[in-house]
Design brief:
single chain; 173 residues; alpha+beta; PH-domain like
Length: 173
């Protein structure tokens, strides 16, 4: 009988923890509900300059606050992704989400980094794309490409399309 009570107590405690996490996530989504939706894929986009099918979307956060995840769709959850670089910008399709588009002129920085919220990898293992989601809202989207040569190719392709728009740098603090 004592074992059953202890077990029920532990299960109730774990249930409260899960409930608290769920309520916290819902609160974050409500708090961020005014964040504008990212641009959809433009019509007539054409063939990409580079496509990476084995990418991992890690997170999108407010610029300079890598631990402040944006929770609204499509940014809320990590997942496998397809990343395409077009002359007009970068298309990102996260599994189970509508793809979104980062126009070239909104990209302010492309860099390599090592860590963001809930993900730390080898040095320079993440690509950070800093961009303007809204007129006064700068965000950073973090992508993980496991294969080093594909990671370099993606970084070069994004840097190439933004070279005339903005300065880029290799290291992101």
């Amino acid at each position: 009988m004592e074992v059953a009570l202890v077990t029920l107590g532990i299960l109730a405690f774990l249930g409260l923890i899960v409930l608290g996490m769920w309520l916290g996530w819902r609160r974050r989504v409500r708090k961020q509900s005014a964040i504008p939706a990212p641009p959809a894929l433009p019509a007539g986009l054409g063939a990409p300059r580079l496509a990476v099918d084995d990418a991992h979307y890690v997170a999108t956060s407010y610029t300079g606050t890598a631990l402040e995840r944006i929770a609204v769709r499509p940014f809320g959850y990590r997942g496998r992704a397809v990343v395409e670089v077009h002359p007009q910008g970068v298309a990102i399709g996260i599994a189970a989400e509508d793809p979104f588009f980062i126009p070239r002129e909104r990209i302010t920085l492309v860099a390599r980094t090592q860590a963001t919220i809930d993900r730390a990898v080898e040095p320079d293992g993440l690509i950070a794309v800093q961009w303007q989601l809204g007129p006064e809202l700068s965000v950073e989207t973090f992508l993980r490409i496991v294969e080093p040569s594909a990671r370099r190719a993606l970084l070069e392709a994004i840097t190439t399309i933004t070279a005339t728009e903005h300065a880029t740098r290799e290291e992101h603090k």
